[in-house]
Amino acid sequence: MVQGLNAWINQLRAMTIAQPRRAVGAGGEMRRIIEAIAAGDADGAARASFDHVDRVRKFALAVLAQESGGLPTALPIT
Question: What is the Cα–Cα distance from 63 to 2, expressed in whole angstroms?
């Protein structure tokens, strides 16, 4: 199951990383994560990581909807 989920994540990453708008905000998100880690702020790093993953998840869903004319019914992401 974990391998299947990793494969799905890698497929989504490959599909979305080529999109022109994908990088918007990513630099700032990575900076927030790194700064929180460097400051020893585990909660801040977790929050910043979640925010990044959540934004990319929404972006991936939008790309899937655009490319398929609608969302797939069996997304392993909630």
Answer: 23
Give the CA angle between residues 23, 28, 32 to the nearest 5°: 135
Name the residue with tokens 């700064």: 35
**What SS3 class is residue 3?**
helix
> CA angle at residue 8 from 6 to 11, to 5 degrees?
110
Q: What is the pTM of this model?
A: 0.70
54-72 as b/e: b if 16+ CB within 10 A: eebeebbbebbeeeeeeee
Over 70: is that where the pLDDT of 73 sits?
no
Q: What is the largest CA-CA distance in the chain?
A: 44
Q: Per this entry, what is the length of the chain?
A: 78
Q: Helices in 19-68 by DSSP H: which ranges? A: 26-38, 42-68
